[in-house]
Design goal:
homopentamer; alpha+beta; Beta Polymerase, domain 2; Methane Monooxygenase Hydroxylase, Chain G, domain 1; 2 domains; eight-stranded mixed β-sheet; 9 helices; 8 strands; 15% strand; Magnesium transport protein CorA (chains A, B, C, D, E); cobalt ion binding (chains A, B, C, D, E); transmembrane helix (chains A, B, C, D, E); cell membrane (chains A, B, C, D, E)
């Protein structure tokens, strides 16, 4: 899974399109291939760890009613190429599976539907979003899914649901499995949004109670994550809208309400992101006006103290002068009189401040 | 009814869609089912408090011309499921009835129209918006309505209007009742807007008269509520637009002008919200420029006082020095001369400030 | 006429739609009905002050070629209802005539076209906009117009033009009269815009010459009025666009260029409002940067004076100390030397400020 | 030519549409009519200065292959009316020729195409835009052009090109002349944009080098002119788009690539304006942050000097007190000790400032 | 290659369209013509340096299956004209080849497709974008490409790929070469974006760690480059969308997925630019709030020091006065008492600051 970063948009300029180059961080882990064959009555799961194994598996796929091949780890282009060639996937499709910088999109090829999505995860400690590049292919009788990393298997709940022989997943075709994969990814965004919402509510309290520089960084980083999140969800809306509208033999009409449902969820996610962005903008305004308000208060204190004591100190300075001829110095009433003048000045200034509402 | 909060967008990732889980705050109150049967000549109302009663009612619904079943409290999924199964509602529809985080939307099912809306209420003391999740189903000959809580019965005025045997409600079909329910919810937004408008006008006065930190919080909280309000009204526009355009046998042509009317109201509400947001942005600008203006005034006072007295105090300091050989100290005219210099400096500075328009 | 206020959006929640309730400020004045019958050769004008008279007039309307009934003052719902029933107007139409909060809109009913508009007026002394709710109905052979108040008769110029037997108004059908009424209201916006433009140009000068807190209030209030103005003009564009596109037997093809003309005017008004808003935003930026610039200047003066004199005062303080053993005090050259050091410090600081471009 | 001002949007409310009233500044200059007749083989130019002459010319227009009548100065409505009646122009078209506040637009009349545009010119000394109202009519075999003032003849280059007998202008129909007039006006915007671009680049340098109040005014005035410029160019886009799409017998298919070309230029102008506006917004941000940065620096200097010397001056003050019993005063080591303390305090504070990165 | 500048939008007003004038910076270098003829089996490359040579080449083009003529350096209009006439290019097309200010666009001529694009390059040292004007023509059996400068040959990778006899480039028609040229330019944007992303991440760190004036300039300059970049990429989207939709005999159906691929890349580039702009806006907000926060801290230090010592200095001043009758001066306990009062004041003020959270 990759930390949401700005600069990993590199592409190899001038290279022939369709060349498979892994763009993400190079990883040393093995590829894990999970193959599931299921129908209303049967369920069979196998896993391979190396490419060699996979080649053997190639000779066996034909007989199962619905096949689902999940490829965990796309950092070995040769494995992707090998799967791709088995299922006759277009070179550009294979390129998009490996290009972890590819934004979410849907492509219709002759007999397959290809969807790229981003799986979002929020790391609370680092306060950072991580995205995982997930590609899915729906073909006649089979579904392929490619995940970037295999630490977390995001499709585990679907495997669990497949155990349930009477579940809709077992009774429906590959298009329903395809939908279930998309739905799982979309649902993950809700979890991320909830965590971000938590952070925003915390930040709200922090900013109103005590305004320090950390709040600014938190605000900025939340805004930034929101921008990156929106960028990964926004195209999903179009993917689902195209899936709904497009009349394709791969998609059964019974799937329509489910596609509409996940489409609605996407809209809800997008609107929540927009709402959060608006609220974060509002928070920035609050922050700035609280800061400038505090500055005002600090300045008031400084001004009140300075304005009162500076003239008084001046008067004291006058009578500290060592001139030989200062008649006031020798009068009995002079010292109390000076005190009187000083108090009068202080009171006058305090009344002035009162009028200005500075006290 | 729920306080408008940011973080309640949780969904159970990976769960099979169509599973009924109540997402709102769990409540201990009983469910209240209100059943109304009416025609041009008859009107019959019954209420049940438990699910058992409701099952008995199931055997009786067939004969009435128009049936309206209002379910108060959706926190018991089993009741919703029981009603849903009686009327053969789609599992996704039932899920949306229970999911209080579902945004407003319209769905067409085979023989029913399903509308989700949010009932808004403004708590003046807490200065917070509350939203209630309301779902409505229009089927052949019946209307179902689901409310989140039953403290306030928002559909009471409609029951009162049903008493009037010659009213349009009694003379029309279930689609008119369906419209009347939607219209009631839309009209509630006007009341909320009026209260928010009141707050904004009060805030306008507060900000211009005395600018304290509280105004910032009020501004922010009004902006925030406005964002949440817009989010709940915006989809209503599309719901009504779809109801108007969609040619559906459930909706009679006579309903058209009424749908247009409630659509116009929605537009008016949305525009008022936008207007309020613009005005609140303007208020923030006023607040910030008033704050910076006051800072300027404070600084002017400090600068004037400091700038006049600091040089004078310096002069006094000079002649307070204890050097043995300071010839000026022994001159008769020295003391008055120093006073003269001091007054000259003050006058010069005052003229300088006058020119700078600081006085 | 009503002052543009934020909070008058109240609606009677849950009431049966089509109920006539006057929402504006209740007025004690009488209703004034002005009835005009005209054709190419004849022109007849009558006025009634009470409802009783109006009922008598009902029996006479049939024979005139073109009838125009102007109802001044919509605060008596029973009069509107009585007119409405005579001309068989839809209950929702009647409701919109009386509801002074209804935003501008166009509705097509079976044999009538109904237009709601807002007549704008600018009160220079209060610097506030006032809107008057005006409704117009075009039916076969007749035009009805409803105004909110009768102090100012905005349609007077049209009556004057009707005197001219050879004018286009007399030679054309009721649709041309309908257009002339709309055109009059749209033209009024130009006058309001001119007055607002005057204010903005004045404000430009004020802000650049002397920046005080009043300018902020003026800026805010102009922005606010602009928002309210836009809100009342924006829907007019759609009204006219619908009138142009809609092929309706009530509208003759000869009217097309005139409708296009008034549509162009509306666009021009909207664009001017947007331009004014942009300019006001620019002015706010100028205001804020001028304010912060002035602050800078004030701070510079304070800093220069303080920075020069504080060290000098410290030196004077040193030699004002009363220690028994301060050898410098007894040297002849000490006093002039101290003066020398002080002047050197001042010059050094002045050079420093010069380099910093603070002088 | 008129200075771009805000308030000249006056219209005569309630007047009959089609009345010719000159809205611009009344001018005393004569009207100048320039009549050009040309074909592939012939070219004939005549000018009249008074209306009487023009009437004589009316009897002569029929025989020339292509006629171009240019009316310089539209401040005499009677001349426009006279030309208008000769060519049977619609009264609303004539009104728009005279109304110098009319925004750019295109109107199709039965056998003519009518285009209104604004000719932009930039006065470098005043740093202000000037707009000239130009109207053009394309009819069967003739082109009419109306300019507001005749000091500068903007169409002179076209007359020069007409001299070239083998030029495309001479070989094409009146639609090509019509296009050439529009193209000339659009090209003028490029010149204006170049001058504005120059100003912006200058302003960039000024703001980064020395930030004074003048830069704010310049920024504001450039923003303002940009708003006015955009307002005059924006509708041109639609004019040209309509000309391209509309299939009209007046426009030959050969003109299409040329219309597309001038349309592209308009898009380019609009985008440049938007780019300039974005850059100006960026400049304002730079300006504000530079200002606040400088304030910070000023405050730092003040704070460092004050914070160091205020405590020192206090210590000096202590030992300047005249109490009879101050044992320290009589110690030999006291004076150097005080100096030691003072230096220690200064050094401690300097280290503190160093840590805070204020030095 | 040209530095991205604001003011080079000059056009020669009133000139006949179709006149070839080079608008870019005049260059003294020679033109370089590279001619490539290739088919599945053959590949032939020739270069000419002068126009004379080119004329000789004209007599040879007919026999090769696919011809690609690359013209490096468009500053010699006569060469462009000579190529243009050989291939019968429309005069407006030739004008756009030479006009380096022409924005990206696509034009369909009778038997050619003409595309203008901007090649972006980022100079890290100057932190500036450079754009190169590139035009491409696809005709039956040939492709023409025109580059502004010949220091860097951006199409070199394509020549390398042409060496590979089994590559798709060699096996496909001229439309694939045309696509490959476009793809190369679009891919270059990714490299530029990566460098800009680097700069932004660096800036993020800089701003959060130490906020100096340079960061503002960097921020502004990145924003500016982003605006210019967007302006050059935005129209590319439309070019590719038109290429995809337009059914043209020059484009084979096999090209469709490749066009879709490069279209997706363009979308991705545009979205990255928008994301960067949003992030830069966020950074500016951080910068401003950090600045104002630092100001607050500076003011706090000044206020604390001043507020504590100013009253103390005043007290010291009081007892430095030289009045004859100041009874306190002669008391034994007076000096320690004054110290006590001073310490009490300091402690009280420190507690006050503690409460205000300034410490």
């Amino acid at each position: 899974m990759e930390e949401a970063s700005l600069k990993k948009t590199v592409r190899k300029t001038g290279e022939s399109p369709g060349t498979l180059t892994y763009v993400g961080r190079s990883k040393l882990k093995d590829v894990l291939l999970t193959f599931t064959e299921y129908g209303e009555e049967s369920l069979l799961t196998k896993t391979w760890k190396t490419r060699k194994d996979f080649i053997r598996f190639n000779q066996r796929t034909e007989h199962a009613p619905i096949s689902w091949l999940n490829v965990d780890g796309v950092h070995k282009p040769e494995v992707v190429a090998s799967v791709g060639n088995t299922f006759h996937l277009h070179p550009l499709l294979q390129e998009d599976v490996v290009d972890t910088e590819q934004k979410p999109k849907i492509d219709y090829y002759d007999d397959t539907i290809f969807v790229v999505m981003k799986m979002a995860q929020f790391n609370r400690e680092k306060s950072r979003l991580y995205f995982e590049h997930v590609s899915m292919v729906l073909g006649p009788g089979y579904v392929l899914s490619f995940q970037e990393e295999r630490d977390v298997d995001i499709f585990e709940p679907i495997r669990t649901r497949l155990q349930n022989a009477s579940g809709q997943l077992r009774r429906s075709g590959p298009d329903f499995l395809f939908y279930a994969l998309i739905d799982t990814i979309v649902d993950h965004y809700f979890a991320v949004l909830e965590q971000l919402g938590d952070r925003i509510e915390q930040l709200e309290l922090n900013i109103i109670e005590e305004t320090d520089e950390k709040a600014t960084h938190e605000l900025y980083s939340l805004k930034r994550e929101m921008i990156l999140l929106r960028r990964s969800v926004w195209p999903v809306r179009e993917i689902l809208s195209k899936l709904q509208r497009g009349s394709n033999t791969l998609l059964t009409p019974e799937l329509q309400p489910f596609l509409r449902d996940v489409y609605d969820h996407t809209i809800q996610i997008i609107e929540t992101i927009e709402t959060y962005r608006d609220i974060l903008s509002g928070l920035l305004d609050v922050y700035l006006s609280i800061t400038s308000n505090r500055m005002n208060q600090i300045m008031k204190v400084l001004t009140i103290i300075s304005t009162i004591f500076i003239p008084l100190t001046f008067i004291a300075g006058i009578y500290g002068m060592n001139f030989d001829h200062m008649p006031e110095l020798h009068e009995r009433w002079a010292y109390p009189a000076v005190w009187g003048v000083m108090i009068a000045i202080s009171v006058a200034l305090l009344i002035f401040f009162q009028k200005k509402r500075w006290l």
